[in-house]
Design goal:
- The chain is α/β, with parallel strands linked by helices.
- Helices cover 46% and strands 15% of the residues.
- The protein has two domains: 3-204, Rossmann fold (3-Layer(aba) Sandwich); 219-310, Helicase, Ruva Protein, domain 3 (Orthogonal Bundle).
- The strands form three sheets. It has a five-stranded parallel beta sheet. The chain has a two-stranded antiparallel ribbon with strand order 3-4. Strands 6-7 form a two-stranded antiparallel ribbon.
- A hairpin with a 2-residue loop joins strand 6 (131-134) and strand 7 (137-140).
- Helix 1 packs across helix 2 and helix 1 (3-22) crosses helix 10.
- The radius of gyration is 20 Å and the shape is globular.
Length: 310
């Protein structure tokens, strides 16, 4: 790793340190969030209200040095509120397009599953192709483009289940959970997280982030590791507990997440520990149980333990 690359890696680790000052006691989860961004993936944060999902999403967008917009998803939110709308202007005798909040580098989709399926579907093209088609015209989104979404558990009142097609567009799904006793005591005795968030500054520039993402692509993946990844993917498709297995898109995302994990550890090659580190978060929300009709990250972990490591 040359000097310039080391400087970029150092900036990413500085971003991680700042995140740890915002979200206490969740180092492993925050590292996975950075891995998701380094792998050019969209991130889904699912947990009960009040554990810091929105704070984490806001902090992540700020630290990355990217332009971001937060939009609160509600049941009355329309696709046009998200994508934009063409308005007729009398003085020019023509329609003028007014872009919506999706035209940003980072879209913070807060409580995404409180919007109706019609509005949720407005994100599908953007998340897959980094473009939107409105009034028959395709418009490119800024680069890079990420969706960092939060959602409440499906059992809570006023939520709409995300369709499988949209879940598959999120590279990782993470849960924060309750803080441990030590972290919660520090949280209760310290200053407000919102005050800390207001003082947060970018740890790296957009150019440095793209440089890091380009470096991730150069990480090597040996044939035995590819065999291991393919064995995991095949196991999800053959396991009768699941309605269906991982898609090719999920397999490609798993490879990129493994490379990002290796790069974050300053390694030039993926090792089995990288696969085991990211697999539950990549596969957990995609594997739907036949019995319950819902995803369960624990099932992904059980499947991973059943597949032999090369």
């Amino acid at each position: 790793m040359n000097l310039e690359n080391r400087e970029v890696l150092q900036c990413v680790h500085q971003a991680e340190q700042q995140l740890n000052q915002i979200i206490l006691g969740k180092q492993a989860t925050l590292q996975l969030a950075l891995i998701c961004i380094l792998a050019r993936g969209h991130l889904l944060l699912e947990d009960i209200p009040g554990v810091g999902k929105t704070t984490m999403a806001h902090a992540l967008a700020t630290i990355l040095g990217l332009q971001f917009v937060r939009i609160q998803f509600t049941s009355d939110l329309l696709p046009a509120d998200l994508l934009g709308v063409s308005v007729y202007e009398r003085n020019t005798d023509a329609f003028r397009f007014h872009p919506g909040p999706i035209f940003t580098q980072v879209l913070l989709a807060d409580e995404i599953n409180r919007a109706t399926p019609k509005t949720q579907s407005a994100l599908l093209e953007a998340m897959a192709e980094q473009q939107v088609t409105i009034d028959g015209q395709t418009r490119l989104l800024p680069h890079p483009f990420f969706v960092i979404a939060t959602q409440n558990p499906q059992a809570q009142i006023g939520t709409f289940e995300l369709p499988e097609s949209q879940l598959d567009r999120f590279l990782l799904r993470l849960e924060l959970g309750y803080p441990d006793t030590k972290a919660e005591r520090t949280l209760l005795q310290g200053i407000s997280r919102q005050d800390v968030l207001a003082q947060l500054k970018p740890a790296l520039s957009a150019d440095q982030l793209q440089q890091a993402q380009n470096e991730v692509k150069t990480i090597k993946l040996a044939e035995p590791l590819l065999d291991y990844i393919q064995a995991l993917v095949a196991a999800t498709r053959e396991d009768q507990r699941f309605s269906y297995g991982l898609s090719p898109r999920a397999a490609l995302g798993l490879v990129q997440a493994c490379k990002a994990s290796a790069w974050l550890e300053a390694r030039s090659m993926v090792i089995p520990e990288d696969v085991q580190r990211v697999f539950p978060s990549v596969a957990g929300h995609r594997l739907i149980s036949r019995q319950s009709g819902r995803s369960d990250p624990r099932l992904a972990e059980q499947l991973m333990r059943a597949v032999a490591i090369p």
